[in-house]
């Protein structure tokens, strides 16, 4: 098996001054889907979406993604197959959660749909491992 890896952008060059700790959590998700912090009606569902979105990001990238709350192993046999979550991973996760929250059925009837051009795939493609 041959592994082709896209070049990763240099995120270290970006200033992180004033940025919150990177994490997809209930508070951030509620802001993304326009729910008030004190509204707890959807908390369980949003928790499911958070877990599923993190897995979805990792599955799309074909690698393990470690989020800040995860415990990383001290060493990995294949370090090229994992990465720390970064801002594009977080935003892609938030986009897919908002999509799932707004579209709770597997089929949309009577509506023209299209993918957002600078959405999930555009954010994650630079970090994706493609097996050939």
From TrEMBL:
InterPro entries found in the cross-reference section: Phage_gp6-like_head-tail, Phage_HK97_gp6-like
Q: Which Gene3D superfamilies does the UniProt record give?
A: Phage gp6-like head-tail connector protein (1.10.3230.30)
Q: Which NCBIfam families match?
A: put_DNA_pack (TIGR01560)
Q: What is this protein called?
A: Phage gp6-like head-tail connector protein
